[in-house]
Design a protein that fits this description.
CATH architecture of the largest domain: Sandwich
Order of helices and strands: EEEEHEEEEHEEEEEEEEE
Strand order of the largest sheet: 8-1-2-3-4-14-13-16-17-9-10
CATH class of the largest domain: Mainly Beta
Largest sheet: 11 strands, antiparallel
Radius of gyration: 19 Å
Mean pLDDT: 77
Number of domains: 2
Number of helices: 2
Number of strands: 17
Shape: globular
Structural class: mainly beta
Length: about 230
C-alpha cells in the first residue's frame, strides 16, 4: 500500500490543527480517500479492481499515478484511466507527502507537482442548507422495511435524480461516527464513507462517478435505526 497526502501538515499555533487529505492504494484493487482534522474522520472507500483488470494492471511494472485537485473536484488516475472522482472542500496548505506500508517496496522514477488554478478559487465551499427547505417530496426516495417509498422528516436526499453529486440532510441523535455505503442493485459495494458528526441536523455530500442508473445508499447511525435510500443518476 502507498499513501499520498497533501494539505497543511504542520500545527502552527494552539488550536490550529493539521488538515490533510490522503489517497491510498492497495494491490487488491481498493482506493481510499481520507481527511484528517484532529482525527481521521472522513473516508471514501471504493473497489476499482474491475478497472485495473480492464487495463491489465501489473503491479510489478511501471505505473503512473495522477492526483489532481481543481477547486473542489478531486480526480485520481492510474495509467491515464480515471479511477476516482470526488468533491472535497479545499484546504489551504502546500505540504505534499508520500508514505508506504513497511511490507511493500516502491521505486519512484518521477514525481511531478503542479499548482492549478488561482489561489482565490481555493475558498472552502459552504453547504447550502436552505435548499433542503425547497426540496419537494418527489425528489426524495426512501426504502422502508415494508419496501414502500416515502419521505421522512429528518432525512432528505436532494437532488434525486442527480447528475453526478447529491446531498443527504439528516438528523443525528448522538455525536459519533455515521457510516454510509453505496451499492449497485446487485449488492456490489461501490463506496464506503464514514464521518464524525455532532448532534443535530447534519449534511453529507456524495459524488458518484459510475454509469447512469439506480443505486442504493445505506446510512448507519450510532443510536438510530439505519435508513436506506434509492438514488438515481441520470
Amino acid at each position: 500500500m502507498i499513501d499520498f497526502q497533501w494539505g497543511n501538515a504542520i500545527t502552527q499555533e494552539k488550536g490550529n490543527s493539521r488538515e490533510i487529505f490522503q489517497v491510498d492504494f492497495d494491490f487488491k484493487g481498493k482506493i481510499r480517500l481520507a481527511f484528517f482534522n484532529n482525527a481521521w474522520n472522513y473516508m471514501v472507500y471504493k473497489d476499482i479492481s474491475h478497472i485495473l483488470r480492464n487495463q491489465n494492471f501489473d503491479k510489478t511494472k511501471s505505473n503512473t499515478y495522477e492526483i489532481q485537485q481543481e477547486n473542489e473536484l478531486l480526480t485520481v488516475k492510474i495509467n491515464n484511466t480515471t479511477v476516482l472522482t470526488h468533491k472535497i472542500n479545499p484546504v489551504k496548505g502546500s505540504h505534499v507527502g508520500i508514505q508506504q506500508c513497511l511490507k511493500s517496496v516502491w521505486e519512484i522514477d518521477d514525481l511531478i507537482i503542479k499548482q492549478l488554478g488561482n489561489e482565490k478559487q481555493l475558498a472552502s465551499l459552504k453547504p447550502n442548507l436552505d435548499s433542503v427547505k425547497t426540496a419537494s417530496s418527489q425528489d426524495v426516495s426512501i426504502i422502508k422495511k415494508e419496501n414502500m417509498l416515502s419521505t421522512t422528516q429528518h432525512a432528505i436526499v436532494f437532488p434525486n435524480p442527480f447528475k453526478s453529486d447529491f446531498k443527504l440532510s439528516f438528523y443525528n441523535p448522538e455525536k459519533g461516527i455515521v457510516k454510509f455505503t453505496i451499492t449497485n442493485l446487485n449488492g456490489a459495494v461501490l463506496q464506503k464513507h464514514s464521518k464524525l458528526f455532532e448532534v443535530g441536523q447534519q449534511q453529507a455530500d456524495f459524488y458518484i462517478d459510475e454509469a447512469p442508473g439506480l443505486y442504493i445508499l445505506q446510512v448507519e447511525y450510532v443510536n438510530k435505526e439505519p435508513e436506506v435510500f434509492k438514488v438515481i443518476r441520470k
